Amino acid sequence: MRYRLYQPEDFPALYLLEEQCFAPRERFPRHLMRQLVAKKDAATWMADASEEDPKEKLAGFAIVEWSRAAEERVAYLHTLEVGARFRRQGVGAALLRHCIASARAVDVGSFWLHVAVDNAAARALYQSQGFVARQREEHYYGRGRHALTCALALRNVS
Ligand SMILES: CC(C)(COP(=O)(O)OP(=O)(O)OC[C@H]1O[C@@H](n2cnc3c(N)ncnc32)[C@H](O)[C@@H]1OP(=O)(O)O)[C@@H](O)C(=O)NCCC(=O)NCCS
Predict the structure, then answer these.
(1) pTM attached to this predicted model
(2) Residue 112 phi, psi (nearest 5)
(3) Whose CA is nearest to atom 9 of ligand 1?
(4) CA of 50 to the centre of ligand 1 (A)
(5) How far is the C-alpha of 100 from the C-alpha of 129, rounded, in Å?
(6) Substitution candidate for ligand 1 out of 18, 87, 119, 123 with most atoms within 8 A of CB
(7) What are the tens digits of pLDDT across the range 56-79?
(8) If you measure from the C-alpha of residue 124 to the centroid of ligand 1, how many angstroms do you get, rounded to a whole number?
């Protein structure tokens, strides 16, 4: 597996994976995804599988964005997606670690994300990387689809 930053020509493969990972009502609309990957204060990490077939080349991707809130810089994970046949091989954890490293590189103090309460795989992954659930947000993903806000401190508060 090779981990690298997104390039504009990756968009078709990236959005195909979005369509494979999420049902239509849960997906980022194409135009919003295009805006996200083009943001300046953000990083999109790609995981390339070694196969030659371009349709199977992208194993996963993750997008983190950072901004200043009150006293410190905070990062937010917009999405983390791994193709079905590449799961449980450490790809999701590695992509998340790359996002965390990008955030650390710009001196982010805390890293946040939302995860659906019923997404056991993602919750286990985030927990394994040190994220702690802080708050439950009712109907965050639409009616009856609740979320947890999870956080990871990257710097000790003095
Ligand atoms: C969630 C997702 C990104 C996990 O990616 P992955 O590459 O399979 O995760 P990893 O192999 O790096 O798993 C790391 C750890 O997370 C936990 N984990 C991952 N998938 C799990 C599952 N299905 N059940 C239980 N624990 C799981 C385990 O602790 C795992 O370590 P282990 O394999 O040594 O036990 C992947 O399932 C996915 O893309 N799902 C669809 C999109 C999605 O829901 N994204 C998250 C949006 S918030």
Answers:
(1) 0.95
(2) -120, 160
(3) 92
(4) 20
(5) 10
(6) 87
(7) 789 999 999 999 887 889 999 999
(8) 7
Q: How confident is the model at residue 156 (pLDDT cuts 50, 70, 90)?
A: low
Task: Output the ligand 1 site: residues, CB below 6 A.
Answer: 21, 79-82, 87-93, 115, 119-122, 124-125, 128
Whether residue 63 contacts residue 36, with contact meaning beta carbons closer than 8 Å, is answered with yes
CATH label, 2-153, candidates 3.40.50.1000, 3.30.930.10, 3.40.630.30, 3.90.180.10: 3.40.630.30
Residue ranges per structural domain of the chain: 2-153
Residues 6+ apart with CB under 8 A from 18: 27, 28, 33, 79, 81
